[in-house]
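Figure 3 (text version): structure tokens given as input.
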């Protein structure tokens, strides 16, 4: 690309392209990063500079960029049809994908409702849960329960469940009322890392709430084993299983949001498997299309689905849909994405990388510029600390951002999340690449700590 073209793109980017979660007044202080192409685990910018995609293009890339199987599936579908509606019509790719998802998610989930983004998958679960109880004639069950610092996406419904005080402050007046339990991870910190005690106490609090208000509660909504966007905060093991049992006892639906943890991120295809849990509703997104196209899905049990079946005149059907629901291109790639898991024996390799990452993170324990790292599957967060005070740098200092800039100059693309730097590489990351990411991050943190 010529220097003139680059200058024009940068100028238009600043002027016209309003970026998500971005203070546009600062955007492009230092040249904005414009990615032109990618190959495998690497991104290339308009200057031709290469960087390892250590955040999997925001946690969604699975088998690397431009995977031949996924590319071929997309091009193959393009030769048939790019889009046709799912309202009043169907198409082979969505049918096959629905079948494949039912086969590969926990047993008991039988029906798939497609959408485009994780937030929508959650939004749909909220509306399904609410209407489920209405259809059964129990319309008083309308309250939702979530946890502090939860993240379920940015639409008004999904962000009602979200628990970030900052977002609640700005958009709180738009939200529906939600009962909130403590973050299981925060409880564990309160009990000096005692996971067992945190689990027991958290479940007691849930039981108490369900005893008091269960008659009014439609559903409990939980992220799948880890509070991702809050900074990779793992639940104590057993939270999901315990919650599922309590929900059953009190006739409250359990919605599990595996938008971040689904599709191999934790070493199994879905984290629910590890806890032996089949939720009533399961929200999927991010990795579902291998990181290629916007696609998401909400899976439901037979019991939920059945509550929407009635003679037409009773108007019990689910009133929901988008223009691009079950887009054939996205479905075709998502099918190929699932096939690659089996063909390339992805999960055993991911389990090795998870162990390697665990060992590799030990070095940050002794680093004055780092707090204690947190890990869940192939996701980690390393908090940045001011070596003089041992605390986080103040909000707005942007130190975390500068660490990431330094890492990018060393060829590794990372992003901050709160006061931490997160690592969420594609599942196709190699052992050498994990070593590189950890080394570059360590160097960049030390350098910034001395600046
Ligand atoms: C990213 C995420 C979402 C939102 O997904 P979008 O595709 O960004 O709308 C919802 N829940 C969890 C747990 C997530 O990590």
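Below: residues designed for each position.
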């Amino acid at each position: 690309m010529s220097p003139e073209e680059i200058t024009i793109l940068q100028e238009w980017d600043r002027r016209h392209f309003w970026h998500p979660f971005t203070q546009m007044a600062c955007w492009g202080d230092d040249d904005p990063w414009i990615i032109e192409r990618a190959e495998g685990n690497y991104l290339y910018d308009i200057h031709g500079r290469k960087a390892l995609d250590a955040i999997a293009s925001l946690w969604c890339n699975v088998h690397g960029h431009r995977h031949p199987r996924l590319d071929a599936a997309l091009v193959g579908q393009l030769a048939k049809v790019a889009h046709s509606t799912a309202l009043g019509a169907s198409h082979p790719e969505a049918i096959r994908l629905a079948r494949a998802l039912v086969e590969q998610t926990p047993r008991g989930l039988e029906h798939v409702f497609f959408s485009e983004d994780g937030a929508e998958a959650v939004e749909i679960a909220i509306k399904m849960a609410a209407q489920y109880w209405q259809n059964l004639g129990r319309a008083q069950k309308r309250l939702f329960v979530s946890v502090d610092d939860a993240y379920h996406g940015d639409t008004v419904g999904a962000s009602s469940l979200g628990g970030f005080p900052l977002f609640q402050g700005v958009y709180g007046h738009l939200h529906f009322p939600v009962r909130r339990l403590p973050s299981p991870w925060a409880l564990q910190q309160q009990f000096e890392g005692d996971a067992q005690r945190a689990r027991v106490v958290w479940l007691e609090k849930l039981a108490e709430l369900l005893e008091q208000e269960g008659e009014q509660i439609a559903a409990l909504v939980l992220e799948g084993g880890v509070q991702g966007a809050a900074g990779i905060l793992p639940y104590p093991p057993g939270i999901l299983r315990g919650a599922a049992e309590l929900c059953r006892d009190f006739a409250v639906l359990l919605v599990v949001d595996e938008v971040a943890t689904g599709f191999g991120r934790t070493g199994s295809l879905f984290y629910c498997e590890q806890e032996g849990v089949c939720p009533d509703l399961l929200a999927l997104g991010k990795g579902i299309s291998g990181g290629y196209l916007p696609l998401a899905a909400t899976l439901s049990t037979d019991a939920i689905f059945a509550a929407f079946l009635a003679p037409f005149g009773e108007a019990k059907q689910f009133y929901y849909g988008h223009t691009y629901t079950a887009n054939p291109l996205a479905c075709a790639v998502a099918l190929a994405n699932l096939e690659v898991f089996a063909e390339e024996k992805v999960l055993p390799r991911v389990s090795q990388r998870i162990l390697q990452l665990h060992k590799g993170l030990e070095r940050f324990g002794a680093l004055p510029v780092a707090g204690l790292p947190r890990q869940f599957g192939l996701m980690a967060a390393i908090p940045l600390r001011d070596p003089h005070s041992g605390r986080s740098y103040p909000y707005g200092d942007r130190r975390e951002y500068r660490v990431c800039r330094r890492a990018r100059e060393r060829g590794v693309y990372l992003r901050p999340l709160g006061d931490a730097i997160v690592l969420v590489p594609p599942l196709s990351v190699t052992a050498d690449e994990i070593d590189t990411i950890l080394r570059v991050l360590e160097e960049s943190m030390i350098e910034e700590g001395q600046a």
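Residues 117-119, 122, 151-153, 223, 228-229, 257, 259-260, 285-286 surround pyridoxal-5'-phosphate (CB under 6 Å).
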